[in-house]
Amino acid sequence: MWRSLAGREAGLADRIVPPSGATAKLTVFAAGVMAFLAVFALALALATGRLADRWAEGLAQTVTIRVSAPASEIEAQTAAVQQALATTPGVAESRLLGGEEVEALLEPWFGPDVPVDALPVPRLVEVTTERGFDAEGLRLRLEAEAPGAVLDDHTRWRQPLVSAASRLRWLGWLSLALIGAAGAAMVTLAAQAALAANGPVIRVMRLIGARDLTIAQAFVRRLTRRTALGAAAGTVLGMLAVFALPDMQAAGGFLTGLGFTGWGWLWPLLIPPVGALVGFAATRAAALRMLREVR
Hints:
The chain is α+β, with helices and mostly antiparallel strands. It has ten helices and four strands. The chain is 65% helix and 8% strand. Strands 2-3-1-4 form a four-stranded antiparallel sheet. Mean pLDDT is 78; it is low at 250-254.
C-alpha cells in the first residue's frame, strides 16, 4: 500500500491516469459523507456504552424500601426498618425521604402541590449499598420485623434500561460496519467507472508493455488519495458537529452525554486512515478484477 501511495511508482498515477472531474468530486463527497456518519455512529456507540455502565452501576448500588402501614403503626414500622438497616451488613447509608422529595416524585402523576399529608403515601427509605449486601436476606428480615415494608432493588425496571442501552451500543457498532461496507462499495463503483472511462489509455499502456499491476497501482493511488481526503474532511466536520451538540445534562434526556469525553476524542481520528485502507483494498480488488476481464 505504501509503495502504491508514496513509493517510487506513485508519480505514475499523475501521468498515466487522466483526472476525471465528476468521478473525483463524487468520490471525495461520498467519502466525506460516510466519514461524517461514522463519527456520529461512533459517538452513539461510545455514549450508549457509558450510559449502560452508569445505569448498571448506579442502580445496582441503591435499593428502596417502601413502608405501607396504618397511620397508627407507620412510625413504629419505619423505626423498625431503620434499626434493621443499621445492623445489616453491606448497607453503606440509609435515608428517609422527606415530604418535599416524595412530593417531587409524585408530581409527574398528580401535578404540582400534591397534598402529601392528606394522602396515604407510604414512607420511602433510600438505601445505598456496598459489597456484601444481601437483598434477599434483608427482605426476609423485614418481613419478620416490619411486615409493612417492601424492599425494591429496581431489578424489574433496571434490566430493561441496561438492555436497551446495550442494544443501542451494538447498533452503533453495526452502523459503523455498514458504513464501512457502503464506503467500500462506493469506491469499487468509482474504480470501475474510472477504469471504463480510461479504456484507451489502458490499451495503450498494455501495448507498450505495462503490467496490469502497474496500471492498477496508478488507479489505486488516485482513488485512495481521494477517499482519504474526503474521509478526513468528513471526520473534521463530524467532530465539530458533535462538539456543537447542546448540553442535555440539565434536561436529563436519554441521550445525555452523547459525544466523546477525554481520550475518547482520539477515536474519530482513526476514521481517515481506516477509510484510506478500505479505499485501497476496494480499489485494488476492483481494478485487478476488471483488468483481468477486459483484454
